Amino acid sequence: MKKLRVLALVHQELMPPRDSGRYNTNVEWKMEYDVIETLERLGHEVEVVGLHANLRVLTAAIDRFRPRVLFNLLEDFNGVAVNDQHLVSHLELLGIPYTGCNARGLLLARDKAISKKILAYEGVAVPSFAVFRRGEKITATERLRFPAIVKSLVFDGSVGISQASVVKTDSKLRDRVRYVHQEIGTDAIAEHYIDGREFYVGILGAKSLSSFPVWELAFKKRPPSTRLIATERVKWSDKYQKRLGVRTAKARLPMAKAKEISDLAERIYRLLELSGYGRIDFRMRDDGVVYFLEANPNPQLAYGEDFAESAEKGGLSYEELISQIVETAFEKG
Questions:
Q1: Hey, what CATH topology would domain 196-328 get?
Q2: Where are the domains of the chain?
Q3: 207: burial class by Cβ within 10 Å (0-12, 13-18, 19+)?
């Protein structure tokens, strides 16, 4: 593609060093480094701006660098997760093409209850659920079936999720909701725990979509007492991953079932008005019924992570993936 002036937007504390050498893969800025280094390798002129809470820093960088496109790697603004949609609204007002999801898609996908309500209306299978707001009395509801898994209503990345997140009684439900309210600092959602296999589908595009092979989470050494869920430790602890033999790879599914899940993921992507790139998460029961769990716009983009790995399995190298993400910035859904 044409060589461009690209302004990469990153969190201030995740600014990668310009010359990292052979860096440790556990560094917090791995994704930022991988994307920026790849953009430069593709021949683009890249400048990086670190943001936290001051939009004047962004304005100054744009005035100085005059970018053709903004590569958005921000997941919050001023430390508030739901501010990502407001930041993107600001980018839209600037009139400069940017990568990743639009503001409306971020709004609909970020709130796990809103996304489930929309999809249930459209006939997509979703677990029964209940929302528990901070400051309100925690009361059980007949709509929620046990066992249930309790999560933050708006955070992704498995923040606050552990084996203790799955509860079977009203008492345990109240305890876990209080934990989310007090320790995570957000409203909570509790949804019926679907026992089965966990799948992810990566999608790229806005007008036209490309979906990557269905990806599956598996534990090779899972004790009987351990549920197959993507806890915070499963996602981020190398030691825990080795202990349980955590593995993600292309799902072994009949061709027809894999197509059913991919088609459903693309339908959900459209219904939630996502764009750029995203990941749709599912659980499938033993009887083959597939339930929507959540949508993740702008998922982790580091080389070797699930999204990039599934793209490679679908025929896109990491360089081609980053290049196509830049191209989607100019594609209006």
A1: D-amino Acid Aminotransferase; Chain A, domain 1 (3.30.470)
A2: 5-98, 128-192, 196-328
A3: exposed
Q: Which two tokens stand for residue 286?
A: 């033993």
**Count of CB atoms situated within 10 Å of the CB of 313:** 15
What are residue 129's DSSP bridge partners? 191
Question: Are residues 105 and 272 in contact, defined by beta-carbon separation less than 8 angstroms?
Answer: yes
Question: How many CA atoms, within 13 angstroms, populate the side-chain half-sphere of residue 149?
Answer: 20
Amino acid at 129: F
Tell me the pLDDT tens digit for each residue of 29-41. 999 999 999 999 9
| Class in CATH terms, 128-192 | alpha beta
Give me the count of residues in the chain. Answer: 333
pLDDT tens over the chain, length 333 residues = 789 999 999 999 999 987 656 566 678 999 999 999 999 999 999 999 999 999 999 999 999 999 999 999 999 999 888 899 999 999 999 999 999 999 999 999 999 999 999 999 999 999 999 999 999 999 878 889 999 999 999 988 788 899 999 999 999 999 999 999 999 999 999 999 999 999 999 999 998 999 999 999 998 888 877 898 888 888 878 888 888 888 899 999 999 999 999 999 999 999 999 999 999 999 999 999 999 999 999 999 999 999 999 999 999 999 999 999 999 999 865
Structure tokens at 244: 């349980």
How would you class 159 by CB atoms within 10 Å of its CB: exposed for 0-12, middle for 13-18, buried for 19 or more?
middle
